[in-house]
Design brief:
Elements (H helix, E strand, L loop, with lengths): L7 H13 L21 H13 L4 H28 L2 H12 L5 E6 L2 E5 L2 H4 L3 H5 L3 H19 L4 H18 L1 H24 L1 H4 L1
Length: about 210
């Protein structure tokens, strides 16, 4: 709906509006305290700048249009990743179903009488539309996150090209969703650590 994610919606919409007004950096406008603008949340300001400041569309339309656009890109990237990983259409379809259609874990609050709710239901959403069309920095963060893994593990680029593209993706991720940036750094660090440990024991593992 238009009032998505409760009060957070207005903050995200304000980032788009700042792009509409010609700014790529963002401020928290719902405060009287003075603070500098930062170049985070470019997933909001860049669409706002191009489609609002230049083309004249309003921030509400831009926000929800890019929710749908980023959502389609996120779903496409997910399908590509699952297929690259499994090399099977059936496994890809099953993984896609489990990711976007199956409910989250159950949180049992009482056995007698039995009462249960979906764990973190506010975050996991209940259907594919809700899970794929969240706040823009979530969707773009997921897209870049998945793209970085596909680039690193499945691309046939030379090591130099791969390093350049991976660096661009990680910088874009940092400017879009810092939490996802930290998550992917931890994932790659853990992977390289495990790889290094096995390399010490078995050189063939490195290849």
């Amino acid at each position: 709906g238009i009032n998505r994610w409760s009060t957070d919606y207005y903050i995200y919409l304000s980032y788009v509006e700042q792009g509409v007004r010609g700014f790529l950096s963002t401020k928290l406008i719902f405060t009287t305290q003075s603070h500098p603008s930062v170049f985070f949340y470019l997933a909001y300001t860049i669409p706002g700048f191009i489609f609002g400041h230049i083309l004249g569309l309003n921030s509400i339309f831009i926000y929800h249009f890019f929710r749908a656009l980023y959502g389609l890109m996120f779903l496409s990237a997910t399908v590509i990743f699952f297929y690259k990983l499994s090399k099977s259409k059936i496994i890809t379809l099953l993984a896609f179903f489990l990711t976007f259609y199956v409910s989250g874990f159950v949180k049992i609050s009482s056995f007698f009488p039995f009462q249960a709710t979906r764990y973190l239901d506010w975050l996991q959403e209940q259907n594919i539309i809700g899970r794929a069309t969240g706040p823009l920095h979530y969707s773009v963060g997921f897209i870049i996150f998945i793209s970085a893994f596909i680039l690193y593990f499945y691309s046939k680029f030379s090591p130099i090209k791969k390093a350049v593209f991976l660096g661009l993706l990680l910088n874009g991720l940092l400017l879009t969703n810092p939490f996802n940036f930290l998550l992917i750094v931890l994932c790659f660090s853990f992977y390289l650590l495990i790889k290094f440990i096995f390399f010490q024991k078995n050189v063939q593992f490195f290849h």
